[in-house]
Amino acid sequence: MMADNKTKSIKPANKTPPKSPADPAKERAAKRLSYESNSSHEGAMAAELSALEEAFRKFAIHGDTRATGKEMHGKNWSKLCKDCHVIDGKNVTITDVDIVFSKIKGKSSRTITFDQFKEALQELSKKRFKDKSNEEAVQEIHKLIEGKAPIISGVTKTISSPTVSRLTDTSKFTGSHKERFDPSGKGRGKAGREDLVVASGYVPGYKHAGTYDHKVQGSK
Predict the structure, then answer these.
(1) Exposed, middle or buried by CB within 10 Å (0-12, 13-18, 19+), for 44?
(2) Where's the Cytochrome c domain (predicted)?
């Protein structure tokens, strides 16, 4: 019995070799590669997420510094449809665009999300591209919008008025103001602002200044 108990108590030897100490540098390198791989994958997904959503975000934040780009107001929706030529004045009009927006958005909401935006485009695609299948029409309307951005208009123009013209026409200046510009309208700089000493020997403004030497030489 004693022999049997001793035999049972003996444990088999662990044949698994002991692990070598971890190399911190290799672990960091492996983690970095894993992170870069995940980042590149996420970047590819973001790129796919794409031209259509990028356009949506650009129009969604247009004219609103507080906008996040996740939702779009009716005004910006209409601008997108105009700028991207979704509205062609024939198959799709501004009225059609407004009706679709009101239909897609929630009853108590004033904005649409990107998913609702795609639904609205699907609705308009049926009218905009009547001669194509539903799938082709959606693709075509997406092409009109992908990669686009709001067109900036309404640049301030200079208003012409008699008062402004009189104040900026140097030929009509009088007194000390006239002395600050030459006949072509170019500023004279310091000479037009200060009384500079003239050492020519002639009185300032004398018409025949510089002719004395010529007269003396001519009389000899």
Answers:
(1) exposed
(2) 64-149
Question: What SS3 state is found at 10?
Answer: coil
Only one residue has tokens 């996040």, namely: 68
Residue pair 123/104 in contact (Cβ under 8 Å)? The answer is yes
Task: Say how far apart CA 67 and CA 188 lie, in whole Å.
Answer: 51
At 54, which helix (H) or strand (E)? helix 24-60
How far, in whole angstroms, is CA 214 from its chain's centroid?
Answer: 68
pLDDT digits (tens, 9 = 90+) for 173-197: 666 666 666 666 666 666 655 555 5
CATH fold, domain 51-145, is Recoverin; domain 1 (1.10.238)
pTM over 0.70: no
Torsion angles phi and psi, residue 111, rounded to 5? -135, 170
What is the C-alpha separation between 65 and 217, in angstroms, rounded?
79
- Tell me the three state secondary structure of residue 11: coil
Structure tokens at 196: 């500079």
